[in-house]
Amino acid sequence: MTDADLDAIVAGKPDAVVFPKAEGGPSVVHLDAKLTAREAIAGVPEGQIKILAQAVESAAGLFAAGNFRNTSPRLIGLTWGPEDLSAELGAETNRDAQGELTEPYRLARSVCLYAAAVAKVPAIETVYVDFRNSDGLRRDTEAARRDGFTGRLAIHPAQVPVINEVFTPTAAQIAKAEAVVAAFAAQPGAGAVGIDGKMYDRPHLARAQALLASVKD
How far apart are CA 182 and CA 175, in angstroms? Predict the structure, then answer.
């Protein structure tokens, strides 16, 4: 149904499309070509419509997740989907009695993070389907931010404020990032610096710069 979907939505000039069950870089290249043709027909500037690929939503997608790099300038992020994946695996559930992901889905989540890092695009956490459980959503989203995800999909509008709050850097986080950047700026070429008795090296600098860049955006 891809062609019919794209025929219906491209004329509406969306910012991006979510690409379900993307299975590796070639699938993004294929979608890029379809979007380019329809942009021309609809009078949309070429490349305007971006792609958020659900890279790990099938078993085949998991094994192909490492080859999204340099596939298309449209690609703005990778996410994953435990619901379709669990249906394909024939699993009874993808979370345990405490609401935590079971082992097959923790693996899929991790693969998505690594795949996004390889592709040099943001990793976007999947939906939290228990949409009335705001405390659970907050805990799960905080864990996503901790592990490297830069946002998450919402399944209900009520989830958006919690997601935005969790992924918005706090004043303390911004101040710490600024201190790290300033310390390295004061010692050009240094491999590591000390701040308040703690050592910070180049990976800390990269994370601080990324955080500050996200605030400017």
Answer: 10
| Phi, psi for residue 56 in degrees, rounded to 5 | -125, 75
Alpha-carbon torsion angle 109, 110, 113, 115, nearest 10: -100
pLDDT digit string (tens) for 133-155?
A: 999 999 999 999 999 999 999 99
**Tokens describing residue 153:** 């999909």
Would you kindly state where each structural domain of the chain is located, as residue ranges? 2-126, 171-216
Of residues 188 and 30, the one with the higher pLDDT is: 30
What stretches of the chain adopt beta strand conformation (E)? 16-19, 50-56, 75-80, 124-125, 151-152, 192-195, 198-201
Domain 2-126: give its CATH code: 3.20.20.60
Cα separation, 90 vs 182, whole angstroms: 52
The pLDDT of residue 216: 76
